Amino acid sequence: MNKPFPYTELQRRLTGTRFGGTVHFFKTTGSTNSVALELAEAGAPEGDLVIADSQQQGRGRLPGRRWQSPDGRNLYVSAILRPTTHPSKAASLTLTAGVAVAEALAVWCPGRVSIKWPNDVNIGGKKVSGILTEMRTRGDSVDFVVVGIGVNIFMKFDEFDEQFRHRATSLLEETTHTPDRIDVAEAVLRSLDRWYETYSTKGFAPVRSRWLDCSGIVDVKVTVDDRDSRVEGIVRGIDEEGALLLEDNTGSVVRILSGDVLPQ
User: Fold this and answer.
1) For 7, phi and psi rounded to 5 degrees?
2) Stated pTM of the model
3) Which secondary-structure segment (H or E) carries 50?
4) CA distance 137 to 254
5) More confident residue, 139 or 67
6) Please, what is the average pLDDT of the chain?
7) Measured between alpha carbons, how far is 58 from 115 in angstroms, rounded to an integer?
8) What domains are there in the chain, each with its CATH number?
9) Strands laid side by side in the 113-116 sheet
């Protein structure tokens, strides 16, 4: 379980996909996303990966949130993408990655995996994976997007931070036969390769359709906390750019662009 990640074997397994090129492996790093951002700024091509056995400063989407990243327990990977899309539409890549991760993990937990807007993948309603996308632009076009994916694999219930342990889970907790990290990495990245190809060639519409199929919050009453604001309503889906559609107590449907969604 604490063996160094076999990144050269992952390279071999991903041959023929856009991620079959360079894997930058670190025993430990601050954040795989931070490393990937630096590599992309220096010209690293689409498909380059950054993987670490542990992160010292793994971070979540919301300010102040950190991603627990103990040594050899989970998957911490960031992928460099260079989509030919307008920056206003690049946010939908987070949801594309969510679909990819959900489909990959469903192999081990069929019928129990769902997506929570915008960037969480759950098993039985508990968070097993988080996605952090970070974009850089050049003029009015996207220069690159880094897609960071964390998947809890070997974490035990009592190893999660106390404030999150009743809302978080791992493949160890949810399966009778826990897969190796390389098997999870291969499944997630092959799925991301397929769904990114769909996104690139057919647009967001087929991704949106699949996201709605996988979502666990459509027609659910929720509270959306976004820093100093709070909105309540019923989730009615997502729009063509990935914004959450929320029906408020007046019957109006509003677009939610950010926030933490909490089912009531």
Assistant:
1) -70, -30
2) 0.93
3) strand 49-55
4) 27
5) 139
6) 92
7) 21
8) 7-214 (3.30.930.10), 221-263 (2.30.30.100)
9) 23-29, 49-55, 75-81, 141-151, 126-138, 120-123, 113-116
Give the confidence band of 62 by pLDDT, cuts at 50, 70, 90: very low
146 and 93 Cβ atoms separated by less than 8 Å? no
Complete edge-to-edge strand list for the sheet that includes strand 244-247 = 253-256, 244-247, 229-238, 221-226, 260-263
Q: What's the confidence (pLDDT) of residue 57?
A: 65
98 sits in which H/E element: helix 92-105
108: closest CA among 187, 182, 167, 165? 187
pLDDT tens sequence across 230-253: 999 999 999 999 999 999 999 999
**According to the model, what pLDDT value does residue 67 have?**
59
Q: Which two tokens stand for residue 227?
A: 């820093």
Count Cβ atoms below 10 Å from residue 252 Cβ, excluding itself.
Answer: 9
Residue with tokens 């992309």: 40
Return the pLDDT at 60.
53
Distance CA 14, CA 87 (A): 28
Q: Given a cut of 80, is residue 161 above it in pLDDT?
A: yes
Helix H or strand E segment including 100: helix 92-105
DSSP string, 180-226: PHHHHHHHHHHHHHHHHHHHHHH-SHHHHHHHHHHBS-TT-EEEEEE
- The set of residues, in sequence order, having a beta carbon less than 8 Å from that of 187 and lying 6+ positions away, is 104, 105, 107, 179
